[in-house]
Structure formats: C-alpha cells, structure tokens
Amino acid sequence: MSEEKRYYYCTLGSEFGEIVMVWRFADNKVVRIFLPMQHDLFRSSEYRSLGISGITNRAALDLIRKIESLLNGNPVEVSHDIVDWTRTAAFQRLVLRTEGKIPRGMVSTYGRIALKIGRPTAARAVGTALARNPFPLVIPCHRAIRGDGSLGGYAGGIKMKKRLLELEGVKFDRRGRVVAEAFW
Questions:
Q1: pLDDT tens for residues 57-81?
Q2: 25, 34, 163, 174: which one has the fewest Cβ atoms less than 10 Å from its Cβ?
Q3: Which residue out of 21, 22, 33, 141 is catalytically annotated?
Q4: Is 10 a catalytic residue?
C-alpha cells in the first residue's frame, strides 16, 4: 500500500461545526480527532493530503455513528481499543484513561483526577494532558472542569463543552458553574 493511502479521514457535521476523524489504514486505529476550532491544526498536519474518500471500514463507520449519536445526546459506549495510544506519552495516557472512566452525566476536576492517578500536585499537568487529548469525544475530556465548578478550557470551545455536558444531563447554576451533585 502506498504511503499516500496509509491514513484516511472523514468529516462529520455537527451543531458546533465540522469534526474531522483520522484513522491509520493498516490497523484501523484512530490517530486523531479534530474538533471544529482545531481545523487550522488539521490543515497543517501530516494528514492534510492523505484523505481517502468513501469509508468502507466497518469499525470506522461504527465510530462515526457513535459520535453522531453522542452529539445528539444519546449515551454511547466507545471502546478505547480503537485509539492509537502510541501517540501519547505515559503520563498523558494515564490521565486520558482515568478521564475515560468518568461516567456520562458526571464531571471531575483537574485536581481530583491528579489525586486519582496518585499525583496530587499535578492538577496543571492533568489540564495540559487533557488539552492535548488527540481523541476528544472518544476520551470525553469535556468532563474535566476547574475546582470551583467553572468549565475551564476545551479544544472545541467553551460553548461546545457546556453543550456536551448539558446533553449528558449535567446541570449548571446561575453563574454557569457545574452543580455539586454532578461531581465524580
């Protein structure tokens, strides 16, 4: 197989804008998901000219359907086996795997995640690891918030983060902070 066909990608429309998902052809692993506000990253990435139109791979199509369902507010289960973990460092992998355990409709804080992974002073590093999550939506980094209940950052933008949490049933107070019963 030629180098040009080693990766393929598809775009997925959403109320937030276009989401781009990139797979490695050889083993059908997701190597990257770009949210709407990350399109400049996609255009300047190694995948820019490697797209193949017409996805026929069953696992890729299944993931697309699950992400569409998730974006419509439905609960979905996505196996983390579909992502290419070799693209992450050991610390980030630990953070992302822990983040992936937060149940739908719940949130955790960067500090609580740091405690869960045995690194109680690493809240900022946890935030950085989540900010660089190459698999948003599959690894639901939108479920991590600041200790004061405010949303913090999100690669897809704060509006998208809040909407994803609302679709999962997370409630907010008048100041836009997550209510306490949603904490994991």
A1: 778 788 888 999 999 999 999 999 9
A2: 174
A3: 141
A4: no
